[in-house]
Design goal:
Order of helices and strands: HEEEEEEEE
Strand order of the largest sheet: 6-5-4-7-8
Shape: globular
Protein name: DNA-binding protein
Keywords: DNA-binding
Oligomer: single chain
Structural class: mainly beta
GO molecular function, one term: DNA binding
Distance between the termini: 17 Å
CATH topology: OB fold (Dihydrolipoamide Acetyltransferase, E2P)
Number of strands: 8
Length: 134
């Protein structure tokens, strides 16, 4: 038996600014971008101009594989609207990403492999979320 799915939940649009515009433009094309620091070699998420590890401004956008593993997950069932799952996903490139999960809410487990999917928002840019990889 499968549990409740959350594929119908309406999403509020994120704030877009010049620093993150390339990220949202790529998401609209179905691509997940991460920032990579040319000074220290670390890859980071959330997109920002300065590296959070060494504070260098020598960063560049790199396309991510869009796959990872659930680090932690919580299912929200109370309040207004449909239930939803929020999770930290450890991307294969290393950074952890706070995101929503789509699909069978009762099936998600820590350590499960997931893949990115891009979901429309209510009047804003497309956002990356994750679904079961299998």
């Amino acid at each position: 038996m499968t549990g409740p799915a959350n594929d119908t939940r309406t999403l509020a649009p994120p704030a877009v600014n010049p620093e993150t515009q390339a990220f949202w433009d790529a998401a609209a094309e179905g691509r997940l971008l991460l920032k990579h620091c040319l000074a220290c070699g670390e890859t980071h998420y959330y997109p920002r101009s300065l590296c959070p590890f060494c504070f260098s401004d020598r960063t560049e956008w790199r396309e991510a594989a869009g796959t990872g593993e659930i680090y932690t997950v919580s299912v929200m069932r109370r309040g207004a609207g449909a239930p939803y799952a929020v999770a930290y996903v450890t991307l294969d490139e290393g950074p952890r990403m706070l995101t929503n999960l789509r699909g069978d809410l009762d099936a998600f487990r820590i350590g499960d492999r997931v893949r990115v999917s891009f979901e429309a928002t209510d009047g804003g840019p497309t956002v990356p979320m994750f679904r079961a990889a299998g």
